[in-house]
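Researcher: I'm preparing a figure for a lab meeting and need a structural model of a single chain. I don't have an experimental structure, so a prediction will have to do for now. The sequence is pasted below. Please return the structure as tokens so I can convert it later.
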Amino acid sequence: EARLTTQSWTNVLEGDSMDQDVESPVAIHQPKLPKQARDDLPRHISRDRTKRKIQRYVRKDGKCNVHHGNVRETYRYLTDIFTTLVDLKWRFNLLIFVMVYTVTWLFFGMIWWLIAYIRGDMDHIEDPSWTPCVTNLNGFVSAFLFSIETETTIGYGYRVITDKCPEGIILLLIQSVLGSIVNAFMVGCMFVKISQPKKRAETLVFSTHAVISMRDGKLCLMFRVGDLRNSHIVEASIRAKLIKSKQTSEGEFIPLNQTDINVGYYTGDDRLFLVSPLIISHEINQQSPFWEISKAQLPKEELEIVVILEGMVEATGMTCQARSSYITSEILWGYRFTPVLTLEDGFYEVDYNSFHETYETSTPSLSAKELAELASRAELPLSWSVSSKLNQHAELETEEEEKNLEEQTERNGDVANLENESKV
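Model: Understood. Here is the structure written out token by token.
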């Protein structure tokens, strides 16, 4: 069956190659992919599918779509055990929290029981003249309970260590110190886990689309950000990155190359006072990576815009970061955002129902470079379209014709006056 299957696939491939006009055969070598990439490959790939789906680098919810595979130096995670525990999921974190305390209680309970067993306290439980190491310790369960009371400093008063047991005193000191260290480590880990500002980023929202339109006579790329909470983000700042593979002049291929997108770094517009939703604008100029991209070329580009909003949470003072991304299908050419801020009686109101809404506006389909060249030739502002330029030329021509007619009528009137004067 395997031979028949191989032969059938060979016949199919030969038949397809005969139907196509191919100048020379091309040998396709399958690259060696990591395990996760091989698992993600589809089992059946349609030959009719010509449009490849763009794989996100950062998802819309801000999570990075990157998996670290074949990491052999796993011991590095243990060198930073505190961060490793904080990064674990809650179910594993709680399991480790319970297991650490249970193991320490059992460990020291076993030692207390061994001390009592070696000293012979178990054989003199009913002897009132015998001084045990720990009073009322008559088995492993009671030793375990005494270990819990010692480490948690509960102290019910029923089981007490005596001064006739030096080894017990030393063990009491060791358990008290180690118990304090365990408490500080685990409670600190849980506190950091609870106070992480990741959930604060859930109330920082980005618009579902980015838009490209004219603003102040210049072609701009824009997106909107907002904060749903009344407690504000202190010292908020915004950054944007263009994720796009490129090839250098030397032939080196750089996958997922990161390029900065200027959103007001030099003018201070990247530092936000995020009380109401703001529209972040990127001017498409000669330093912009979108300088040569037109409306027709934009859907053909394989790029992703990653936006990063950072700031300190006002309530806790911890740094918070929210992320989102836009691929080419989420960039709307010739659109603007619908206003969401209205003036009410004594206050401003934000309508978040219109936060993601856009409306179409008149925008040239040329790239910023072509618009600059066209404007430099005609010496006109960038915001004027070709039709407006033609209309202005027509208006100038009509104005010149009207002036010529007025001058001609004035000359004719002057000539008639001179003739009348000559006749008189």
